Fold:
Amino acid sequence: MGRTLPRSLLVTVLLSMSGQVCAYDATALADITNGRNCPGCNLADADLAQAQLARVDLAAADLRGATLQNAGLAGADLSGANLQGTDARAADLQGSDLRGALLRRARLTDANLAGANLKGADLGGANLEGANLHGAILQGANLRATRLEKADLTRADLGGADLSETIGLSQAQLDATCAEGDGSGRPRLPAHLTLKACK
Structure:
């Protein structure tokens, strides 16, 4: 005698196989696309490419695997948000609050992060090639295995950051930046590179 699956489980399996199950909360997606704040909401795997979300509050939101390519998030609150594996190529995150955000393996090539606060953020394995980090705060951030080729680090604060295994970081990039003497500590750098203290 064969065993049958409960109808609700069977429907879930079939929908999953057809690709129709969404990881994100559709109500939350509608809220933020209409300009409403949505701290802590579930937007995992949501398509927010080119969305204009300046100054939106998405603190502690789940944006794992979301598409934010060319999105406008200037001044947004993404503190404590989970942006792991997010595609944010060419996104405008200027002046955004990303303190403590999880950005592991995020694609941030050519993104504008000028003046962004990334204090304590985890950017391990992220791709920041060509990103604008001018004046960004990266104190205590994890940048191990992060790609930084052609990234603009001018006046970025790297105090206490871990850059020990970054990829493509050059002395010329470090010469344009510094580490604040505010107790955040010296950054961990690859052995062949040095960083001056901020004046």
In short: The domain at 8-199 is CATH 2.160.20.80 (Pectate Lyase C-like). The helical segments are 7-18, 26-33, 171-175. The CA atoms of residues 47 and 67 lie 5 Å apart. The chain has one domain: 8-199.
